[in-house]
Write a structure and sequence with these properties.
The protein is built from eight helices and ten strands. The chain has helices at residues 2-20, 24-41, 60-64, 66-81, 86-92, 105-122, 180-193, 275-285; strands at 127-129, 136-143, 148-156, 161-172, 204-205, 210-216, 219-232, 237-250, 253-260, 286-288. The strands form two sheets. Strands 2, 3, 4, 5, 6, 7, 8 and 9 form an eight-stranded antiparallel β-sheet that branches. Strands 1-10 form a two-stranded antiparallel sheet. A hairpin with a 4-residue loop joins strand 3 (148-156) and strand 4 (161-172). The chain is globular.
Length: 290
């Protein structure tokens, strides 16, 4: 009975939100979530699969087209070696030959999203998450174990709504002294690459508000604060927000960690959280290695 009520609840939520506005990646994330919990409820997956940062599994669309999925996954694996991102794959990864060539654009892109998701989940990274955090879903990424980045987005409610952005990037370094000029260059490079925000939300940037030293993971770090306006999917409006970016070096890597600062209760209403909240929060959930 609980399962029936859950499916009906999700179904009506999806119907309502589809009538408001459509955004493919939001629905792909929602389908991924629904499928994940159905498999766990049926006993086909262990409950730990539902805990962020999750584990890879096959979506039905991949099982329905196994040869096409295998071909796309092989091309994705090669493209990631060359720092090709999800957005690049959605725009450009369209095989002319083989089983994937016969897929419709919509189906091919959905499969690419799930395959990239699994690849980035499985990617060995110089970091790990040490605490549960709900409602984060894969929103973009590129790279390898040595150099790469991942962006997540929050999804809230049965009427899927964008709930802020979080990203982390890493690259090898032999310089553990983080200075403002170096942090600003890292920030500008990542911004140009599209690390902080997907173009689907049409991000608009203002001038940097501040660049200040801080301490993160017992390391000297730099905090950059910059206004970021983007399109909200459900409400169909522009949302003024602030992005906090932390640059630091630890061990053999340099990192950029970013958060949008609107509270998790709503993408439109609520109070601003001070930067110290995010610094404390990062240290509670994220472990940088080695």
């Amino acid at each position: 009975m609980k399962r029936v009520l859950f499916i009906l609840f999700v179904f009506f939520g999806v119907v309502i939100s589809t009538e408001v506005k459509s955004w493919d990646e939001l629905w792909w994330a929602r389908r991924w979530e629904i499928q994940l919990f159905e498999l766990i409820e049926d006993g086909n997956l262990h409950y730990e699969y539902a805990i962020f940062p999750y584990k890879p599994f096959e979506m039905p669309v991949m099982k329905e087209h196994p040869r096409a999925a295998a071909q796309l996954d092989s091309v994705i694996a090669d493209s990631m070696k060359w720092q090709k991102s999800l957005e690049w794959a959605l725009d450009s990864l369209k095989p002319r030959y083989g089983p994937a060539a016969g897929l419709s654009d919509k189906l091919r892109k959905e499969m690419i999203y799930y395959l990239y998701n699994n690849r980035l989940i499985s990617l060995k990274k110089p970091l790990r998450f040490d605490s549960y955090y709900p409602n984060w879903y894969f929103h973009g990424g590129a790279g390898t174990s040595e150099v790469g980045w991942i962006r997540y987005f929050g999804v809230i409610g049965e009427e899927p709504d964008l709930e802020g952005l979080f990203s982390i990037s890493w690259a090898p370094t032999d310089n553990n002294v983080m200075e403002a000029s170096r942090a600003l260059q890292m920030f500008n490079d990542a911004k140009q690459e599209g690390v902080f925000a997907n173009r689907a939300i049409d991000p608009k940037w203002d001038n940097v508000l501040s660049i200040a030293p801080c301490t993160l993971f017992n390391r000297s770090a730099i905090r950059i604060k910059i206004p970021l306006e983007y399109g909200d999917i459900f409400w169909d409006c522009r949302v003024p927000d602030t992005l906090l970016v932390f640059a630091l070096a630890k061990g053999d890597y340099e990192y950029l960690v970013s958060f949008t600062t609107l509270p998790s209760t709503s993408p439109i209403f609520g109070e601003y959280k001070e930067p110290s909240f995010y610094e404390d929060w990062i240290e509670q959930v994220l472990v940088l290695e080695p």
